[in-house]
């Protein structure tokens, strides 16, 4: 096991930003972190990158407990690309070589690694090696920042929204480079991305965060409250477009519910159904996930739901992004968090 | 009008033929201001770094004190330092009054708050992302501090040049502490003030042109540092 987190809590001025009872992360895999803003994704990444210490709890990395002395040692093989990553005020080659020189690689290795890393992120070394930091576009700067991490051939690469503010070309190149790092050096990748389609299709595991907690390892549909109690004992949420969601059970204090993607069915026509919920929406994204399954992201009113269906079913229904579709699930599918 | 034109013409003659009096004042100015700025940087940059980087009780207070000292009137500095280094003052035994060293002391007092306040500000403006960036690339310890300083170098350069600009152009402290002694403590600005009073217009204009040239160099360097600091 690469990382083990036990009873980790991180507070910012009394506010608990992260609370993880148990988390195990295996080496050589790609992990995706999902969750709304403020759910603790960045806090978790920073702790895993040994940038921040948890306020409570224990982290074990490669079998040894992490102390502040060991943290700087572990940072030699664990690196993170921060959100809005910045470059050092130096030339591109000096940016990429910085970490290598710290690790005292000989100049020949430094040179080879710098060229290799720049090529990995699609920047022609000939054109970019001698550019100054201020002579790059936003997307190029982000790729140089990633190259500086890839050059280290890190054991763990943590990525916080690596493609949030970059052009389409840079986005594709960054995504390719990340997959290549995993394949070639067995780098463990843990990342946050707004591009859920890509995340779900690449990640071996998805961790869903909500209010600082890991609510589940696996795809997750999270619907926040408020819920209105009906006379028949069900709880109802009115979406902005007037559609209603009915769920059974007892809401927790947070009023947050999750519905397993496998509980959600798709229908071309509004058929009569015994399920309590029949909603109308459209397909936002489709992506392959775990071989023969397809992960369909649906927009219904202001919420997004994810359904997992077989590729055979997708073909029969002739599903495609942008298509309008009916979404069916039972009131008992609710898991109150 | 005519005497202004003939003053300018004479000034060129003084500059071109290498008038000793003119160049003695220039040399005194450069020696005093360079020494003052080096001392101020050696003391001020580390203090500015401490003030901008670490959070400690009283930090805000010190920051506002140094910010206020940015606008210190030069004659007031002259007065204070005079009080300390005159024969009756606590440092009277060092015989600094009316020497170039005395001028340097005054200029350090003027430059130091500028160096401290501006370098603290440039470290603050770097924000935590620079530190995080260096940490994620594996830096730590002394190396980390050094590299943070290096990332703030254009801000530091700005602090140094702003301080230099102030020191080289001030006249109050240099007059009071140096005494405008010919060949010894006469600087460009004190010479200009006194030569003009004596009706020696050409000398004043010649020195003025040199001061203008220095100010121009200082300001172009300053705007270069500003531009570099803003782009990333």
TrEMBL record, chain A:
<keyword id="KW-0813">Transport</keyword>
<protein>
    <submittedName>
        <fullName>ATP-binding cassette domain-containing protein</fullName>
    </submittedName>
</protein>
<keyword id="KW-0500">Molybdenum</keyword>
<dbReference type="InterPro" id="IPR004606">
    <property type="entry name" value="Mop_domain"/>
</dbReference>
<dbReference type="InterPro" id="IPR005116">
    <property type="entry name" value="Transp-assoc_OB_typ1"/>
</dbReference>
<dbReference type="GO" id="GO:0005524">
    <property type="term" value="F:ATP binding"/>
</dbReference>
<dbReference type="InterPro" id="IPR050093">
    <property type="entry name" value="ABC_SmlMolc_Importer"/>
</dbReference>
<dbReference type="GO" id="GO:0016887">
    <property type="term" value="F:ATP hydrolysis activity"/>
</dbReference>
<dbReference type="GO" id="GO:0015689">
    <property type="term" value="P:molybdate ion transport"/>
</dbReference>
<dbReference type="InterPro" id="IPR027417">
    <property type="entry name" value="P-loop_NTPase"/>
</dbReference>
<keyword id="KW-0547">Nucleotide-binding</keyword>
<dbReference type="Pfam" id="PF03459">
    <property type="entry name" value="TOBE"/>
</dbReference>
<dbReference type="InterPro" id="IPR003593">
    <property type="entry name" value="AAA+_ATPase"/>
</dbReference>
<dbReference type="Pfam" id="PF00005">
    <property type="entry name" value="ABC_tran"/>
</dbReference>
<feature type="domain" description="Mop">
    <location>
        <begin position="272"/>
        <end position="337"/>
    </location>
</feature>
<dbReference type="InterPro" id="IPR003439">
    <property type="entry name" value="ABC_transporter-like_ATP-bd"/>
</dbReference>
<keyword id="KW-0067">ATP-binding</keyword>
<feature type="domain" description="ABC transporter">
    <location>
        <begin position="3"/>
        <end position="236"/>
    </location>
</feature>
<dbReference type="InterPro" id="IPR008995">
    <property type="entry name" value="Mo/tungstate-bd_C_term_dom"/>
</dbReference>
Automatic annotation (TrEMBL), chain B:
<dbReference type="InterPro" id="IPR000515">
    <property type="entry name" value="MetI-like"/>
</dbReference>
<comment type="similarity">
    <text>Belongs to the binding-protein-dependent transport system permease family.</text>
</comment>
<dbReference type="Pfam" id="PF00528">
    <property type="entry name" value="BPD_transp_1"/>
</dbReference>
<feature type="transmembrane region" description="Helical">
    <location>
        <begin position="32"/>
        <end position="53"/>
    </location>
</feature>
<feature type="transmembrane region" description="Helical">
    <location>
        <begin position="201"/>
        <end position="222"/>
    </location>
</feature>
<keyword id="KW-0812">Transmembrane</keyword>
<feature type="transmembrane region" description="Helical">
    <location>
        <begin position="65"/>
        <end position="85"/>
    </location>
</feature>
<feature type="domain" description="ABC transmembrane type-1">
    <location>
        <begin position="26"/>
        <end position="222"/>
    </location>
</feature>
<dbReference type="InterPro" id="IPR035906">
    <property type="entry name" value="MetI-like_sf"/>
</dbReference>
<keyword id="KW-1133">Transmembrane helix</keyword>
<protein>
    <submittedName>
        <fullName>ABC transporter permease</fullName>
    </submittedName>
</protein>
<dbReference type="GO" id="GO:0055085">
    <property type="term" value="P:transmembrane transport"/>
</dbReference>
<dbReference type="InterPro" id="IPR049783">
    <property type="entry name" value="ABC_perm_TupB-like"/>
</dbReference>
<keyword id="KW-0813">Transport</keyword>
<dbReference type="GO" id="GO:0005886">
    <property type="term" value="C:plasma membrane"/>
</dbReference>
<feature type="transmembrane region" description="Helical">
    <location>
        <begin position="97"/>
        <end position="123"/>
    </location>
</feature>
<keyword id="KW-0472">Membrane</keyword>
């Amino acid at each position: 096991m690469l990382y083990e987190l036990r009873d980790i809590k991180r507070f910012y001025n009394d506010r608990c930003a992260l609370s993880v009872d148990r988390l195990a992360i295996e080496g050589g895999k790609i992990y995706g972190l999902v969750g709304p803003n403020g759910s603790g994704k960045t806090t978790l990444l920073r702790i895993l990158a040994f940038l921040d210490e948890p306020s409570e709890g224990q982290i074990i990395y490669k079998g040894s407990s992490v102390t502040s002395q060991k943290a700087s040692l572990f940072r030699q093989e664990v690196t993170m690309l921060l959100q809005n990553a910045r470059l050092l005020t130096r030339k591109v080659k000096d940016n990429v070589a910085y970490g290598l020189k710290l690790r005292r690689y000989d100049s020949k290795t430094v040179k080879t690694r710098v060229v290799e890393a720049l090529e990995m992120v699609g920047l022609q070394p000939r054109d970019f090696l001698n550019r100054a930091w201020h002579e790059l576009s936003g997307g190029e700067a982000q790729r140089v920042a990633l190259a500086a991490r890839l050059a280290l051939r890190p054991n763990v690469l943590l990525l916080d929204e690596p493609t949030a503010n970059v052009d389409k070309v840079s986005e594709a190149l960054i995504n390719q480079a990340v997959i290549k790092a995993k394949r070639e050096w067995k780098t463990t990748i843990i990342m946050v991305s707004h591009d859920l389609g890509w995340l779900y299709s690449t990640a071996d595991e998805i961790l869903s965060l909500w209010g600082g907690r890991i609510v589940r390892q696996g795809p997750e549909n999270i619907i926040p409250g408020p819920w209105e109690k009906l006379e028949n004992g069900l709880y109802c949420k009115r979406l902005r477009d007037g559609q209603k969601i009915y769920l059974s059970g007892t809401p927790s204090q947070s009023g947050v519910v999750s519905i397993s993607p496998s509980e959600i069915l798709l229908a071309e026509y509004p058929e009569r159904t015994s399920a309590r919920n029949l909603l109308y929406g459209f397909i936002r994204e489709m992506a392959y996930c775990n071989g023969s399954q397809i992960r369909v992201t649906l927009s219904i009113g202001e919420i997004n739901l994810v359904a997992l269906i077989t590729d055979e079913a997708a073909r029969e229904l002739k599903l495609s992004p942008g298509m309008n579709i009916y979404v069916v699930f039972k009131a008992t599918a609710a898991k109150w968090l | 009008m005519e005497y202004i034109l003939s003053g300018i013409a004479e000034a060129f003659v003084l500059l071109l033929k290498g008038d000793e009096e003119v160049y003695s004042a220039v040399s005194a100015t450069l020696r005093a201001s360079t020494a003052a700025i080096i001392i101020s940087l050696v003391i001020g940059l580390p203090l500015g770094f401490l003030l901008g980087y670490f959070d400690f009780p009283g930090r805000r207070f010190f920051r506002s004190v140094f910010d206020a000292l940015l606008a210190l009137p030069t004659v007031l500095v002259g007065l204070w330092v005079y009080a300390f280094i005159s024969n009756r003052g606590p440092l009277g035994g060092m015989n600094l009054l009316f020497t170039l060293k005395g001028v340097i002391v005054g200029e350090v007092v003027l430059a130091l708050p500028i160096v401290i306040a501006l370098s603290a500000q440039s470290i603050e403006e770097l924000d935590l992302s620079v530190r995080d960036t260096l940490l994620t690339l594996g830096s730590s310890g002394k190396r980390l501090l050094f590299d943070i300083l290096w990332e703030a170098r254009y801000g530091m350069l700005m602090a140094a040049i702003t301080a230099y600009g102030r020191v080289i152009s001030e006249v109050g402290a240099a007059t009071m502490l140096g005494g405008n002694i010919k060949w010894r403590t006469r600087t460009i600005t004190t010479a200009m003030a006194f030569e003009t009073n004596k009706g020696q217009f050409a000398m004043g204009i010649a020195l003025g042109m040199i001061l203008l040239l220095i100010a121009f160099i200082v300001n172009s360097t300053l705007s270069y540092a500003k531009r570099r600091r803003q782009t990333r």
